[in-house]
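sanity check this:
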Amino acid sequence: GNFATGITVVTASTPEGAQAGVTANSFNSVSLEPPLVLWSIDKRSGSWEVFQRASHFAVNILAADQVDISNRFARPGPDKFSGIACATGIGQAPLLPDCAACFQCEQYQTVDGGDHWILIGKVVAFTDNGRAPLLYHQGSYCVAHPHTQPPHSTEPDDNDGGALLADNYYYLMLQAVRAYQQDYLPRQRATGLRTSEARLLMVLKERAAARDRLMRLMDMPAIDIDDAVETLSRKELIYTGADNAYALTGAGERQSAALWQIARQEQQRVFAGFSTQELSAFHRVIGAVAGLSV
């Protein structure tokens, strides 16, 4: 139980279309050349026959917000795929939506491993969706946070122009944003949302907004906003209301509130050592530089 692992749902389909999916944390890498991975399945599993007959299988690495998916495929059920909009992968293997990543594998070798079969697959395709993974440790679901690193020295190095950079406001603002994001973004991504999706939910907390307003408020490429809208709509976190404006559903309201809570906690932590007067001056200055009325 002290060995923390990621969680996957491995899926496959027979040539006749019978599907199987099982939750597994036995997934691991084997070889880079050729690219091989493995996982294991209980010999008593009712899903074994499908994997035995399938030409390919898919390893769907679950995102942090997919606890329900993990639980669904961990238990026996008549139709685990009901209500899930799966894509069809190589060899007809079902591909689960909104995962952290996915490996599509050709059956390579099956090894007898005691009371389990060890399935080795050759990776023939993969996707990385940029989502934080779901973890399992000590019998509980967990999320990943970066290990706290020792602070970097703030003393400028005159030999590489550090003193000049330390007097440049633009450079200092960039470094401040990077330092702020080091702890904040991983906490935000641990919700299982991409940065664009989280930002969209937070923007909509105040009021509904159409696409053109979202582009102004989010300051992100249109393709990222459109992808976020499509994903959040599919997850039923937002809906399209009057005048094509996007608004939060009840579930979206709760998710947005959680994101704002993370933002407030991080802001309080970072600025805890400054006085009210210092923060007021900082707020005025940074707002004026950004061209905002504050």
